[in-house]
Amino acid sequence: MSRVFIIDDDGTDITAFHDALKNTGSEVFFTGNAYKFIRYAQELTPDLYIINTDMENTDSHAVIEYMMSQNFSHRAPIVAVSNKLNIISDGISHYLKRSEISTLLPEITNSYCKGGQYYDVLLVEKDFSSPLSMSEC
Questions:
Q1: Going by C-beta distance under 8 Å and a sequence separation of 6 or more, which residues neighbour residue 46?
Q2: pLDDT at residue 127 above 60?
Q3: Which tens digit of pLDDT belongs to each residue from 76-101?
Q4: DSSP conformation class of 49
Q5: CB 71, CB 80: distance < 8 Å
Q6: HSE toward the beta carbon, residue 106, CA cutoff 13 A
């Protein structure tokens, strides 16, 4: 059974997350508190992190930066969920619009946690001086 850990400080999407993930066989953990998210993520060793990047009371970018500094993304992929996909951050494995939670989140979860499905991936690195062509990837 895979473990999915979600942070969303207002909880408005928790029903959507729950409904989308209930048939994936995943054990879902949810918090609205950044400190608990970081602390429990170290103990629960999730297979997938989901971060609402539109949180009003929590700086999701600071959470992501901390996760990157502690190599969380080496342990499990990070999925960013947002109404507006205008952020690009190192370490994010997948970007998902909130309107796509019910349709794409189950597939993405199965792909990352169980494998066997493929998605195009955009790799974002700090050095943009020599971008790779698709033939080099």
A1: 3, 4, 5, 29, 75, 76
A2: no
A3: 899 999 887 666 677 788 888 888 89
A4: E
A5: no
A6: 11
